């Protein structure tokens, strides 16, 4: 099978050669063709990978921050060189266009660059004590071997958000990407290998979450699990990690509102709203899942929104590298999207645009679907309360902005909320009222290395990115010493 080159699982600095294990097929969602296959890992691989990470931990944690930072600098350089290759693999297995895939790799490189700097600046503190004869030193020490488990929608980025701070902190890592998107991650590990990280510092296993992922989470050599994925999986991971009380960072599902108040710049709100509703076919944790628009500007917003959505180009992202949209990942995501739309229509929603696959020979294969706009929606409909993870934008009218805030907070999730208004004083008040880890005011930018990304409520536990994200891989140690004078 093309593209494999006899390399796959990576343990203790070695690529395990092809063997007679069962294979995992990798499908191109734009063509439905199997274009690669990888050997399916098992619990024995997990054990070997964790043992390698345990053995490597002592040496890696004892390297200076300068040394670890310098390794990460080399990773940055290698990833820059490999950017196009990684992005091509990503487009083929995930479906986003080549330019979007390059954007994902660039954002991953930014995370490595940011944490290369941070590795050199991990500081403790010396708090005052009650007596001159006592000194207190608070140090930060790496937690130990980490299991880094990532989903399929941003496989490279979301693994990098774990690898980079873990390595900077002095932790060793066993990575497990989603089964449907293993190839681009494997290419990232080639760069980690070439950077000459000591054997066992990073390891990579493949295989189903229900066996390989579970074994990793339950392994007694793992001290921390850093996971991004569905809230339901997060709950299971909490249970499995409780066996020996592991540290946890969980970045889970979302259901993100956009509020457009009457004083918003409508053109800007529409442009940003369309982008963040449909990018990567709505398969993003911080996608806009529901839109609340003040009644005075509702008609204008809706008209412009539908017009813009209808102009988004849809294509195989290798053939048209700048396409706005590609296919969805798979049949099950497509079916879920259709189910959510059907549920809304059955309960009285109106279809303003989309609701079907695009027409044409070029879409005869692949999981393509038109961006879909619904109105006359309410919170009894699944689309207004559950993550569709598909290209659907339900739009609802409100009279007073406080109503929209209440609707926004009427959710088990609390990942990201967006707000458009020109009144910045009001914006600040509303932002404080929104029960979300991130609030975007007059912009819909995604998470980036210097800023904390933290899911509230059932959107997660702990924080990724920024200084806070680094601290998730460090444990404070208090050394209290008497008679040091
Ligand atoms: P998922 O089904 O939960 O899987 C995520 C990862 O966990 C995959 O590698 C999966 O392996 C593995 N896994 C599954 N069951 C496991 C278990 N019991 N123990 C250990 N690992 C297990 O999520 P997904 O469908 O890939 O991703 C989409 C979800 O991720 C959405 O809900 C989205 O909102 C969320 N997400 C959140 C963020 C955030 O930052 N908050 C960012 C992106 C995505 P397999 O692939 O083999 O099943």
Automatic annotation (TrEMBL):
Gene Ontology MF term list: succinate-semialdehyde dehydrogenase (NAD+) activity
InterPro entries: Ald_DH/histidinol_DH, Ald_DH_C, Ald_DH_N, Aldehyde_DH_dom, Aldehyde_DH_Superfamily
Pfam families per the UniProt record, alphabetical: Aldedh (PF00171)
GO terms under biological process: gamma-aminobutyric acid catabolic process
Domain Aldehyde dehydrogenase: 15-479
SUPFAM superfamilies tied to this protein: ALDH-like
Keyword annotations of the record: Oxidoreductase
Family recorded in the similarity comment: Belongs to the aldehyde dehydrogenase family.
Subunit structure: Homotetramer.
Protein name in the entry: Aldehyde dehydrogenase domain-containing protein
């Amino acid at each position: 099978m093309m593209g494999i080159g006899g390399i796959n699982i990576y343990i203790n600095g070695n690529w395990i050669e092809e063997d007679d294990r069962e294979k995992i097929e990798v499908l191109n969602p734009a063509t439905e063709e199997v274009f690669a296959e990888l050997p399916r890992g098992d619990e024995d691989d997990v054990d070997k990978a964790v043992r390698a990470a345990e053995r490597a931990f002592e040496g890696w944690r004892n390297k200076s921050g300068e040394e670890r930072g310098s390794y990460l600098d080399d990773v940055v350089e290698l990833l820059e060189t490999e950017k196009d290759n990684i992005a091509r693999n990503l487009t083929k297995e995930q479906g986003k266009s080549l330019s979007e895939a390059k954007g994902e790799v660039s954002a991953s490189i930014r995370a490595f660059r940011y944490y290369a700097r941070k590795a050199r600046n991990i500081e403790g503190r010396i708090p005052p004590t009650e007596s001159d004869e006592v000194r207190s030193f608070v140090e930060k020490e790496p937690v130990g071997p980490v299991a880094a488990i990532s989903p399929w929608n941003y496989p490279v980025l979301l693994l990098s958000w774990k690898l980079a701070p873990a390595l900077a902190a002095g932790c060793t890592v066993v990575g497990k990407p989603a089964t449907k998107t293993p190839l681009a991650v494997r290419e990232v590990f080639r760069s980690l290998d070439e950077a000459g990280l000591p054997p066992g510092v990073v390891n990579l296993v493949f295989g189903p979450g229900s066996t390989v992922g579970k074994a990793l989470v339950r392994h007694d050599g793992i001290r921390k699990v850093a996971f991004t994925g569905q809230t339901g999986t997060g709950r299971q991971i909490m249970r499995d990690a409780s066996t020996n009380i592991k540290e946890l960072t969980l970045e889970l599902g979302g259901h993100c509102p956009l509020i457009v108040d009457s004083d918003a710049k409508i053109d800007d709100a529409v442009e940003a709203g369309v982008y963040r509703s449909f990018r990567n076919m709505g398969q993003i944790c911080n996608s806009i899942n529901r839109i609340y628009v003040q009644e005075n500007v509702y008609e204008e917003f809706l008209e412009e929104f539908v017009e813009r959505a209808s102009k988004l180009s849809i294509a195989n992202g290798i053939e048209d590298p700048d396409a706005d949209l590609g296919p969805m990942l798979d049949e099950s995501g497509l079916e879920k999207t259709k189910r959510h739309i059907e549920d809304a229509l059955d309960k009285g929603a109106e279809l303003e645009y989309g609701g079907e696959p695009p027409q044409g020979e070029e879409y005869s294969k692949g999981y393509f679907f038109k961006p879909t706009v619904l109105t006359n929606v309410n919170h009894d409909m699944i689309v207004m309360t559950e993550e569709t993870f598909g290209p659907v934008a339900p739009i609802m009218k409100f009279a007073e902005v406080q109503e929209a805030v209440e609707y926004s907070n009427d959710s088990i999730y609390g990942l990201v909320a967006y707000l458009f208004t020109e009144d910045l004083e009001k914006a600040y008040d509303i932002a404080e009222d929104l029960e979300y880890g991130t609030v975007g005011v007059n912009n819909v930018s995604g998470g980036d290395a210097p800023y904390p990304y933290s899911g509230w409520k059932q959107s997660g536990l702990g924080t990724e990115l920024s200084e806070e994200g680094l601290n998730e891989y460090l444990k404070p140690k208090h050394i209290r010493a008497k008679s040091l004078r």
